[in-house]
Amino acid sequence: MSALTTLDEKPDGAPRADSARRPAAQFGTAVVAIAIVIGLLLGYAGGLLTPDLNRPGDTSAEAGFARDMTTHHAQAVEMGLIAFKHGTDREVQTIGNDIALGQQGDIGIMQAWLRSWELDPTGSEPRMAWLPDGTEMIRDGLMPGMATAEQMTQLREARGTELDVLFLELMITHHIGGIHMVDALLDQSDEKDVVQTAQTMKNTQQTDLTNLRNALERIKG
Fold first, then answer.
1. pLDDT by residue (tens digit) across 43-84?
2. CB atoms < 10 A from the CB of 186, how many?
3. pLDDT at residue 140 tops 50
4. pTM here?
5. Among 97, 142, 196, 215, which residue's beta carbon has the most beta carbons within 10 A?
6. Which residues of 128-155 are buried (b: 16+ CB within 10 A; e: fewer)?
7. In 3D, which of 50, 65, 52, 53 has the Cα closest to residue 188?
8. Are 69 and 105 in contact (CB under 8 A)?
9. Spatial CB neighbours of 121, under 8 Å, sequence gap ≥ 6
10. pLDDT of residue 31
């Protein structure tokens, strides 16, 4: 059963008022948190079960991508959880839930790679240094597509339709930036398992983008 189905509903299937839904929403958030932990563990398991990849070096594109995309994904997980917990549109809640769970699993896989390569999870290289001229893509200390501290604060404090719209807009930008990073990795890496996982990330985010844009058009229209 999806965590979203824990929300109380009237006999006709319509959601109750926010005040009535709040305890159930909190319970649903706890279920999602547990699911994220499970996803993280499965991600670690999936990463550790992949064949030996000849141990990419500390400054390799693979290691840099794993570290930077972990940070990139971590922000998306937080954004997704905010949308799930506080969103008022059911589709926004579902999208937020799916993104949080999926990207937490990806984090587990990437961190498992670094462990299997016997590399530090953070490293000493600047952000995006694994990509030629990649450091030039950093804006205000942020990787492509990432929301600023001010935008994240605004998202945390928003409620109602304002939150739904802001989440969709920020996540669209976030995913576009993430896809650019994946494309850069695909251009440089020939490690089979890394490439396959990165391509899956890209495919998933492209599907997400379609859903995010359609939801934004519906809500704003």
1. 555 555 444 447 899 999 999 999 999 999 999 999 999 999
2. 16
3. yes
4. 0.77
5. 97
6. bbbbeebeebeeeebbbbbbeeeebeeb
7. 65
8. no
9. 67, 70, 111, 114, 115
10. 59
